[in-house]
Amino acid sequence: MNVRRRSAAALAAIAVLGAAAPAVAADPSPSPSAPSAPAPVGLYGTADPTYDGVWRQSLALLAQDTVGVEPPARAVDWLTGQQCADGAFAAFRADPARPCDAKTMVDTNSTAAAVQALAALGGHDAATGKAVAWLKSVQNKDGGWGYSPGGPSDTNSTSVVIGALAAAGEKPEQVTRGGKTPYDALLSFALPCDGDGEGAFAFQPDEKGGLSANADATAAGVLGALGKGLAAGPGKAADADCAGSGEPTRQQAAAHGAAYLARAVAKTGHLTSTLPGAADQPDYGNTADAVVALAAQGGAERAAKPLRWLEENAVAWAKRSGPAAYAQLVLAAHATGTDPRDFGGTDLVTRLQATGPGTPTASLTITATTASDEDKDEKKEKDENGGLGVWWFVGACLVAGIGIGFLISGRNRKRQP
Q1: CA 195 to CA 125: how far, in whole Å?
Q2: 393 pLDDT exceeds 70?
Q3: What pLDDT does 115 receive?
Q4: Structure confidence at residue 350 as a pLDDT band (50, 70, 90)
Q5: Mean per-residue pLDDT of the chain
Q6: Residue 38 pLDDT more than 60?
Q7: What is the Cα–Cα distance from 333 to 128, expressed in whole angstroms?
Q8: Which of 20, 184, 246, 308 yields a CA-CA distance of 20 to 30 A from 174?
Q9: Which is more confident, 142 or 410?
């Protein structure tokens, strides 16, 4: 949520919170870096955590773990303190001391991300065990998961839960409901090789059961089909062609998805945003996810072009977007064996730590091109995007009274390359 690209799962949560529309809509263009209240102690970032607190905290902790950095104890405590008694996590709980109830909007994405982070850090078996038990309890009959418990399964949610199961030592293929495994659900979202969007994954079927290629869902689906999580490392060199007929194996589906992503970034090195008002603009977060997927499926070399593009262009985006964006770039570096402390001349690890507790920003040595050059890059990005931010988009959606069905299907449309 960068809030997963500032964030897809967050938008689904926002849609459920339609009753809160007047409060969000009061300011149609709030800055994601300007909180309305002090950030909770222990949380990474200063932006409003309502829709992405647990997600961005999990990514920040997970990214630091990949480079051997031990996060501050209060940052870990903040995350564990967000867990409900039944094991689930919501996107954010303003008062963790208050028990969760039927009104607490727990979700699979926040829960699965927290499991991956806490499992990586170690020493949190009780918390991860309860979270995994909750995830199993809300598995759908098709074997997959939706964002909200009981919601229709989608590629992104099913994949992030697969990553959580694997991180917790479970075998996803043995986690079944109605005789169906998570991989059964995932493969049902894979497009055939002969037709539009060949080899891609759809987010969800449309109302008529049709599948439309979706770049972000494809990046998630590749990792899910491989049984890997958000912090996947580089895989062995492997073919990534889309050929053959019939239902693919999960390894074949991963290769087909990687082939789709490789074609999507072949010309420019990046994926393109499909957010309203952002025509022909780069999608930095989805490109970072594509790098992880490409490297995990076929080795670092396959992700070389989009990785190079991120090194040259993504630092200003991360500066504007906050800890989840820095974490995504660290994870992209990890997936390709690249040094995140010298990512196009920038120390991403130091930058990420500077957004969190326990490390005063003023004491850090920031390495980048120059401050003035970075400011120019940031201004250029703002100008190119017409000042459009995710919270403007959220506000506009809520003002228009858009419900969860439209927003979720909109997530499918906006993530196509």
Answers
A1: 45
A2: no
A3: 98
A4: very high
A5: 82
A6: yes
A7: 26
A8: 246
A9: 142
| Architecture of the structural domain at 4-414 | Alpha/alpha barrel (1.50)
293-302 mean pLDDT: 96
Please give the pLDDT value at position 27.
Answer: 31
Q: What is the pTM of this model?
A: 0.82
φ, ψ for residue 385, nearest 5 deg: -90, 5
Of 388, 146, 157, the residue nearest 273 (C-alpha): 388
Give the separation between CA 92 and CA 49, rounded to whole angstroms. Answer: 6
Give residue for tokens 């890997």. Answer: 228
Report whether 12 contacts 51 (CB < 8 A).
no
Domain boundaries, the chain: 4-414
Residue where the block lists tokens 């064996």: 337
Q: Which two tokens stand for residue 280?
A: 């022909």
SS (H, E, C) the chain: CCCHHHHHHHHHHHHHCHHHHHHHHCCCCCCCCCCCCCCCCCCCCCCCCCCCHHHHHHHHHHHHHHCCCCCCHHHHHHHHHCECCCCCEECCCCCCCCCCCCCCCEEHHHHHHHHHHHHHHCCCHHHHHHHHHHHHHCCCCCCCCCCCCCCCCCHHHHHHHHHHHHHCCCCHHHCCECCECHHHHHHCCECCCCCCCCCCECCCCCCCCCCCCCHHHHHHHHHHHHCCCCCCCCCCCCCCCCCCCCCCCHHHHHHHHHHHHHHHHCCCCCCECCCCCCCCCECHHHHHHHHHHHHHHHCHHHHHHHHHHHHHHCHHHHHHHCHHHHHHHHHHHHHHCCCHHHECCECHHHHHHHCCCCCCHHHCCCCCCCHHHHHHHHHHHHHHCCCCCHHHHHHHHHHCCCCHHHHHHHHHHHCCC
Structure-block tokens of residue 24: 């969000």
Q: How far apart are CA 213 and CA 417, in angstroms?
A: 9
